[in-house]
């Protein structure tokens, strides 16, 4: 048996360290919910959300105070095929906008008191000197996957391992009660659609959407690029690293690593739209127990998103027609997670409030 590289070992070790969430704690929280001053189940999915978070964190009264939002950015070689309504340089420009606090995620992050961390996972000509950006780039943008793999297998492994190391370092330096992940990268909905088709076997026409709002001509180019990529690249739907190598972006690989690191450390994971969701699906291929740590924040109009969520048996918290990315949907979902835990922790019980309970 061949010796594992450092990156392969890190991925394997962290995946092996992931445990099932705590069902005993969840039963305890259900009992606690039944004592609160409300008809049983009247807070609907907010009750389920608190129970889920409690099981992940293994705490009967979980709190979400130190909340992390991560925006991972990278460029895609497939953008050269004209599959987006925007030029590739927009990835770098939008990252600069985030640095200057001008993005939607900056506004939403501030509104819920969450810490926003920006990651350059492989922006073409990125070279960000600003300390507000964490540079994790294995390469400066992937290759055009209509001509062959988007990245080498070694770089795919390195990017996933880098995501794990990032999360572990963040956790060492800061408390993290929950992590929300989003992305930025021109061409990344094309990569997400290709990955979805490769994993699920669905026809590219079913999983390919309009992304940045492309016209019919651009949509045809996008669909053709995905069909071409699926023909020329060799892949195994059960080989997560191979899938990333063939079609992925560096941001998708880094998010995969972040999910692994979070699950290993019993931290709830809020996924955003189609890009971060396909990254979660890849993480589940590496370690199925990661699915227990995932919370879907919202459903985007991208057709691949519903297919991915169905595959992971996840029901989104919101359906607001969001398709911006940047973890904006995840930030809104995070506000619901915070509320769910506050309701569990701060509502009075029937006994405390001297309110008569349900007649039995």
Strand proportion: 5-15%
Gap between N and C termini: 64 Å
Strand order of the largest sheet: 3-2-1-4-5-6
- Going by CATH, the homologous superfamily would be Nicotinate-nucleotide-dimethylbenzimidazole phosphoribosyltransferase (CobT), large domain
Main β-sheet description: 6 strands, parallel
- Output the helix-strand order: HHHEHHEEHEHHHHHEHEHHH
C-alpha-based Rg, rounded: 20 Å
Quote the average pLDDT. 96
Second-tier CATH architecture: 3-Layer(aba) Sandwich
Unreliable stretches covering 5 or more consecutive residues: none
Strand segment count: 6
Task: Figure out the total of helices.
Answer: 15
Number of domains: 1
Topology:
Layout: H1 6-16, H2 23-34, H3 45-57, E1 67-74, H4 89-99, H5 104-111, E2 115-122, E3 133-135, H6 153-173, E4 178-184, H7 188-200, H8 204-207, H9 216-232, H10 240-247, H11 250-264, E5 269-271, H12 274-286, E6 294-296, H13 303-311, H14 328-346, H15 350-353
Parallel strand pairs: 1-2, 1-4, 2-3, 4-5, 5-6
Helix pairs in contact: 1-6, 1-11, 2-3, 3-14, 6-10, 6-11, 7-9, 7-12, 7-13, 10-12, 11-12, 12-13
What does this structure look like?
49% of the residues lie in helices and 9% in strands. It contains 15 helices and 6 strands. The radius of gyration is 20 Å and the shape is globular. It has a 6-stranded parallel beta sheet with strand order 3-2-1-4-5-6, with helices on both faces. The relative contact order is 0.18. It has 360 residues and is an alpha/beta fold. The model has no long low-confidence stretch (mean pLDDT 96). It has one domain: Rossmann fold (3-Layer(aba) Sandwich), CATH 3.40.50. Helix 12 links the parallel strand 5 and strand 6. It starts with 5 loop residues before the first helix and ends in a 7-residue tail after the last helix.
């Amino acid at each position: 048996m061949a010796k594992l590289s450092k990156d392969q070992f890190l991925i394997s070790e962290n995946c092996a360290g992931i445990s099932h969430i705590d069902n005993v704690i969840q039963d305890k929280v259900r009992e606690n919910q039944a004592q609160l001053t409300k008809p049983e189940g009247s807070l609907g999915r907010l009750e389920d959300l608190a129970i889920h978070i409690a099981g992940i964190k293994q705490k009967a009264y979980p709190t979400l105070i130190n909340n992390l939002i991560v925006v991972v950015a990278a460029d895609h070689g497939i953008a050269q095929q004209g599959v987006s309504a925007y030029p590739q340089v927009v990835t770098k420009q939008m990252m600069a906008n985030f640095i200057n606090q001008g993005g939607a995620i900056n506004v939403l992050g501030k509104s819920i008191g969450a810490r926003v961390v920006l990651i350059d996972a492989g922006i073409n000509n990125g070279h960000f000197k600003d300390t507000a950006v964490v540079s994790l780039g294995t390469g400066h943008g992937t290759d055009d996957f209509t001509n062959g793999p988007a990245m080498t297998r070694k770089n795919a492994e390195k990017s996933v391992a880098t995501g794990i190391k990032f999360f572990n370092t963040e956790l060492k330096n800061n408390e993290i009660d929950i992590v929300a992940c989003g992305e930025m990268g021109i061409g990344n909905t094309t990569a997400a659609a290709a990955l979805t088709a490769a994993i699920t076997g669905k026809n590219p026409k079913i999983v390919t959407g309009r992304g940045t709002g492309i016209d019919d001509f651009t949509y045809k180019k996008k669909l053709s690029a995905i069909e071409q990529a699926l023909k020329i690249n060799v892949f195994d739907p059960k080989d997560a690293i191979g899938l990333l190598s063939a079609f992925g972006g560096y941001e998708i690989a880094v998010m995969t690593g972040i999910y692994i690191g979070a699950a290993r450390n019993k931290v709830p994971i809020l996924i955003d739209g189609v890009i971060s969701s396909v990254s979660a699906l890849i993480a589940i291929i590496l370690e199925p127990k990661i699915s227990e740590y995932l919370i879907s924040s919202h459903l985007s109009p991208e057709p691949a998103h519903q297919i991915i969520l169905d595959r992971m048996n996840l029901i989104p918290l919101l359906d607001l027609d969001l398709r911006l990315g940047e973890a904006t949907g995840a930030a809104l979902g995070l506000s619901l997670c915070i509320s769910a835990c506050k309701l569990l922790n701060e509502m009075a019980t029937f006994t405390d409030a001297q309110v008569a309970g349900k007649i039995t």
